[in-house]
Amino acid sequence: MILLDYRDARPIYAQICDGFRDQICTGILRPGDKLPSVRELATQLTINPNTIQRAYRELEVQGWVASEAGRGSFVLGIPESGENAALLKEFDKLTARLLAAGVSRETLLQHLGKGGNDNA
Amino acid sequence: MILLDYRDARPIYAQICDGFRDQICTGILRPGDKLPSVRELATQLTINPNTIQRAYRELEVQGWVASEAGRGSFVLGIPESGENAALLKEFDKLTARLLAAGVSRETLLQHLGKGGNDNA
DNA sequence: TCACTATACTGTATTAGTACAGTTTTGTCA
DNA sequence: TGACAAAACTGTACTAATACAGTATAGTGA
How far apart are CA B95 and CA A118, in angstroms? Predict the structure, then answer.
């Protein structure tokens, strides 16, 4: 259950992020669990679905959850160190740059496929 | 002068991006030139300043312009694109690092999917 | 039972309203 | 002239309204 505190200076989406991070850290939410849909939670908290989406996207970028269009958002687990976030940001910038330079997404996908082996 | 075509399927912000890219490529706008402020252009086009900001941000991420809070947005020039190979090499290196750090290929694919996908 | 279509979900994208924070310029007073 | 406060800019952040696109499921016919 996510609770909002409107006296809190932090934005709503950040409070939602924190709420889910807590629930994942304490084991209330476990890898594979489904998060409430953006509309469901938005209705429950009486805020706009877009604000939920903003929170889910944040959690996704940071590696806590994964969202799939048409299916839902699912818990991944506690992401590895915070340094990865910085690396991922760099990754995003580089990607944008390559796309702007005319390199196709296919090419990048191929490069991604070629890399090492393991996974997390 | 940026012109909008509301019959165009492309979103407004993408049209604005294209407009400025054209002006930079053709030399109408040169490095160091100041772009109209988000409010000024928004008023001129009778759209919301936020839509302009979206376009400027896109151009900034791609390396065409630089925005400074309180000062304005300025043309940088045509982003380097000659040595895509070098950029791709950097991409590979960064990818390897991320994978080694425990970031899953899934996460990287998601990041790739999220990147801006305006012009063809 | 199986195939297919309609529908009811899901996340996502685009644009807008509004408030905030940083910088520059202008005005005022000593 | 110089210092300093006020105001007029600037980009940015947060939330919301709305429309779109993908997926799963329920319903219907053979």
Answer: 12
Dihedral sign, Cα of residue A23, residue A27, residue A28, residue A29:
positive
**Contact A100/B81, CB-based, under 8 Å?**
yes
List beta partners, residue B34: B74
Output DSSP code: residue B51.
H
> Which bases of chain D are under 7 A from a protein CB atom?
9-19, 21-24
Query: Does residue A120 carry a pLDDT above 70?
Result: no
How many Cβ atoms from other residues are within 10 Å of residue A47's Cβ?
15
For the whole model, what pTM was predicted? 0.72
First to last CA, chain B: 22
Question: pLDDT tier at B108 (50, 70, 90 boundaries)?
Answer: confident
A16-71 pLDDT tens trace: 999 999 999 999 999 999 999 999 999 999 999 999 999 999 999 888 999 999 99
What pLDDT sits at residue B103?
72
Q: What is the percent of chain A where pLDDT is above 90?
A: 52
Q: Which of B63, B111, B112 lies nearest to residue A100, judging by beta carbons? A: B63
CA distance B86 to A80: 29
Give me the phi and psi of B14, to 5 degrees please. Answer: -70, -35
Whole-angstrom distance, CA of residue A107 vs CA of residue A110: 5
Inter-chain residue contact A111 with B103, CB threshold 8 Å: no
